[in-house]
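User: Some background: our group keeps a shared notebook of sequences we're curious about, and every so often someone picks one and asks for a predicted structure to add to the entry. Today it's my turn. The entry only has the sequence so far, pasted here. Could you supply the structure so I can complete it?
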Amino acid sequence: QVQLVESGGRLVQPGWSLRLSCAASGITFSLYAMGWYRQAPGKQRELVAVITSSGITEYVDSVNGRFTISRDNAKNTLYLQMNSLKPEDTAVYYCNARLPVSNYWGQGTQVTVSS
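Assistant: Of course. Here's the predicted structure to add to the notebook entry:
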């Protein structure tokens, strides 16, 4: 049984930092491309950042330079370090694990940026 469990989301003030984690089980984590997506109220889910099995990373322009995606294959865990948070970063953040024939999602963790 595949499980992706996100954690770390909470209410923070603008300019603060937050680290999200995604613990994976039931998959050979090191083989998967991993990603963070987010969905704000009334908006479509969007890709935030991805990291390939070989460690190559890509970011959406709006978070480039502020967010860092990383993975620890020994711990089967994906991370998203978010710095200089803005109100527009408010969303439910989802973890994704993907291969050409497999695609799994976590249940999401809420991040709210508000003063």
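Suggested note for the entry: The two ends are 40 Å apart (CA to CA). Residues 26 and 90 are 30 Å apart (CA to CA).
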